[in-house]
Amino acid sequence: MSNVPSELRYSDTHEWARLEDDGTIVIGITDHAQHLLGDLVFVELPDEGIELKGGDEAGVVESVKAASDFYSPITGEVVEVNEELQDSPALVNTDPYGDGWLFRIQPEDTSEFDALLDADAYNEQISEEE
Amino acid sequence: MSQTIFDKSTAGRHAGSQLPKLSEVQGDIPANLHRKTKPLLPEVSEMQTVRHYTQLSKKNFSIDTHFYPLGSCTMKYNPRGVHKAASMSEFLQRHPYQLESSSQGFLECIYELQEYLKDVTGMKGISLAPMAGSQGEFAGVAMIRAYHEARGDFERSEILVPDAAHGTNPASAVMCGYKVHEIPTGPEGDIDLEALKAAVGPKTAGIMLTNPSTLGVFERRIQEVSRIIHQAGGLLYYDGANLNAILGEVKPGDMGFDVMHLNLHKTFATPHGGGGPGAGPVAVGERLKPYLPLPMVTKEDNHYRWLTPEDCPNSIGRLSAFAGNTGILLRAYIYIRMLGRKGLKRVGEFSTLNANYLMAKLKQAGFTLAYPKRRASHEFIITINPEKKKLNVNAMDFAKRLLDYGFHAPTTYFPLLVPECLLIEPTETESKNELDAFVDALIKIRKEAETDPDLVRNAPHTMPVKRLDDVKAARELNLRWKSKD
């Protein structure tokens, strides 16, 4: 059974989002997604400073099985990326909601965040997929 | 790891009877170009050498030793006669700079191969120059680009690719400067036409797809796909990876495709690469003919000659030195001549018959088909998801355990759309006995997964190596031997 923390929000493309105190939003991929992908060997992150629209491709995660795009669930400017992943992509597998975060975005407004799935809705989605 | 031949080296040992005479080696090379130090070579006896390489060859898991149902790769048997005929000294000794007048036989073979492949595919022009399927794809997309630009149409920036496609398709599109737009697949394996209609427009340069698709089913509404793309001003690219299934039955040209590549190592029994010499001819409809890459052979008054840049001013240019991998092209030519038109049709019939037989037997045995309502093409997918949920034994475990039973594993975890999948392609060259034995092995493995799951989870048990570290292999690729001296 995948770990789906109740304090996070989720996209139907398997990203999670966490609203920080400073108003930025941290994005990663879910435990369910990392489990499907298998051991990651490479992560291509977005450039800091670029503007993304909600639903835009933000980067690529590559595992021993597959290369897969990940998307930004939020419109805004990328203000930080997780440089640790260049050397240690496996952090996404071992700690998808912690050290394995992907990027931080300064949202245009937070209504997009509020519209994302909550943990119950995401849980329902992934159990349907299985 | 087993020892390399250098590990077996002892200073001063040699196989004297096999050494060439020094005078023959040096020939007329000037003395100042002779090397001063000995090359670093293993010093071993003749018998050590024979044993070393014989033992290595016994570790090969190949079509010559085992059933190899690696889906999407068409691992058919390559007839020895093809290799023998292509190895005639008249072919081997021919120099690429030899005059056309003394190469007429060779040029005739290449010309006829062009004609046969055009006939098989229903296309109007072809170049055999690309030296791999990937290069053929690159050439094909480059021609799509050249076509739009020649019309002054610079707005087309997108290539559509179904999500079931081979990974090379989006890669080729990006290499040619296009953005990739992914099109989803419907529940029965056909392309989602509504999504396609929503995606096409003035930015659409073309679509790349393979039919039958990597899901092992025929795209039933291909003519409608073709109409939608053409009406939007785009072109259709056919990935020839699955041509084996439709050989002699349906032609990509008749389905409305404008350009395609052929993987000679799949359909026409040339050796599968591993980085070795390959060939990925690219064939086109009327509209793209001016852009074909050079060189090509033409026939004028019973004389064969290479086409030059002056003959083809709009060509996208050259992709290879000389004429591509002509040794490989000759093998495909001989294979086609050996089988003939009827034989090629039987390839298509038997490859699909074998796949459908295997699919029916596995269904009977209780395995889960990914597309149970569809007839298989030359390959099909089963999913190990039910077994994984019930027994916690996954598709990779089944694949590894198959090696212990003397079968090469099917393709695992591809296509990505189907979880825990095995993509199985028996090819036309396997007998019913072999197919039945494969089904029996899968049934036995499932039994083991119920009674002794660790036996399956820890497989293989009989191979030279156990499970490899895929992550380390991907991140720290090390293919080079380095001397300790």
Q: Tell me which protein chains meet in the greatest interface and how many residues each side has.
A: A-B, 13 and 11 residues
Strand content of chain A: 25-35%
Q: What is the rounded Rg of chain A?
A: 13 Å
Helical content of chain B stands at 25-40%
The CATH topology of the largest domain in chain B is: Aspartate Aminotransferase, domain 2
Task: Give the SSE string of chain A.
Answer: EEEHEEEEEHHEHH
Number of strands of chain B: 13
Query: What is the count of DSSP helices of chain B, taking H or I runs of 4+ residues?
Result: 17
CATH superfamily of the largest domain in chain B: Type I PLP-dependent aspartate aminotransferase-like (Major domain)
Strand content of chain B: 5-15%
CATH architecture descriptor of chain A: Beta Barrel
- Quick one: overall form of chain A? globular
Short key terms for the protein model shown above:
heterodimer; A: 130 residues; alpha+beta; OB fold (Dihydrolipoamide Acetyltransferase, E2P); 5 helices; 32% strand; B: 485 residues; alpha/beta; Aspartate Aminotransferase, domain 2; Aspartate Aminotransferase, domain 1; 2 domains; 7-stranded mixed sheet; 4-stranded antiparallel sheet; 13 strands; 38% helix
What does this entry look like structurally?
The complex is a heterodimer of chains A (about 130) and B (about 475). Chain A is α+β, with helices and mostly antiparallel strands. Chain A has one domain (about 10-110): OB fold (Dihydrolipoamide Acetyltransferase, E2P). Chain A is about 25% helix and about 30% strand. In chain A, the strands form two sheets. Chain A has a six-stranded antiparallel β-sheet. Chain A is globular. Chain A starts with 8 loop residues before the first strand and ends with a helix. The mean pLDDT of chain A is about 95. Chain B has about 475 residues and is an alpha/beta fold. In chain B, helix 6 (about 135-150) crosses helix 7 and helix 12 (about 325-365) crosses helix 15. The two termini of chain B are about 20 Å apart. Chain B has 17 helices and 13 strands. The interface between A and B is medium-sized, with 13 and 11 residues.
